[in-house]
Design a protein that fits this description.
alpha+beta, 2 domains, eight-stranded antiparallel sheet, 6 helices, 8 strands, transmembrane
């Protein structure tokens, strides 16, 4: 009876250790998916990343191409240009359109549920004019454009320009007569260095506890006395 109870206790401990390792691995995998979304997205949706190059067209070409694949009541709110390769993304409420940078060809469309876009009215200016006015007050390549009314209390355009690691956000008034532009915020863009450091730290995080659990497990198994026949 005592031997049977010891075997049951040992099986229970082994099962607990296995479950602990599995739980750590699941937590680690969830963290990787949160901090490393692009590679995961590439695996799940390869069509979104089937680009033909990195050359960019004038920013106004992408909203025009995306409009043909959106619902009539969808209001475009954001234009996201790639900084280090990848597709161009046009956001319209809950919908997203992925486009090929050199050709503006639509790669994929994710039509979300219709949302109330009463705040996001049609702007008075085009994207090309807004970008030109933003680049008149700050240097850099366009990486992000936010339409007026895309957020509550936001009547102006927001254009993000990047230049040698420096990020500048320019506000452009949606006014066809003046269309004044002014720098809203400027600072250093952290780039991929910090993100990569966090990702590698996350990848290494579960190694220590799993190694400790495995070492203790192996030590106890090796310390078990050998039966003599």
């Amino acid at each position: 009876m005592a031997r049977t109870a010891k075997r049951k206790a040992k099986r229970k401990r082994d099962r607990t250790r296995r479950l602990s390792i599995i739980a750590l691995l699941l937590l680690w995998l969830g963290g990787v998916m949160l901090l490393w979304p692009a590679p995961i997205d590439r695996l799940i949706h390869p069509a979104r990343f089937a680009t033909t190059g990195r050359a960019l067209l004038p920013p106004g070409a992408y909203p025009a191409a995306a409009r043909a694949r959106l619902r009539p009541d969808d209001r475009i709110g954001e234009l996201i240009l790639p900084r280090d390769g990848g597709p161009v993304i046009v956001v319209a409420g809950a919908s997203r359109v992925w486009l090929d940078p050199p050709t503006a060809r639509v790669l994929a469309v994710d039509r979300g549920d219709p949302v109330d876009d009463t705040v996001n009215v049609e702007p008075a200016q085009g994207v090309a004019t807004v970008v030109m006015r933003a680049q008149a007050v700050a240097r850099g390549k366009v990486s992000h454009v936010v339409w007026p009314g895309a957020g509550p209390g936001q009547p102006d355009w927001l254009v993000t320009l990047t230049d040698h690691g420096r990020e500048t956000i320019v506000k452009v008034a949606d006014d066809t007569t003046r269309g004044g532009a002014a720098i809203a915020r400027a600072g250093r863009w952290q780039g991929r260095g910090v993100d990569d450091a966090l990702r590698w730290l996350l990848l290494a995080a579960p190694v220590v506890p799993i190694a400790i659990i495995g070492w203790r497990w192996g030590r106890r198994r090796s310390a078990k006395p050998v039966r003599r026949r």
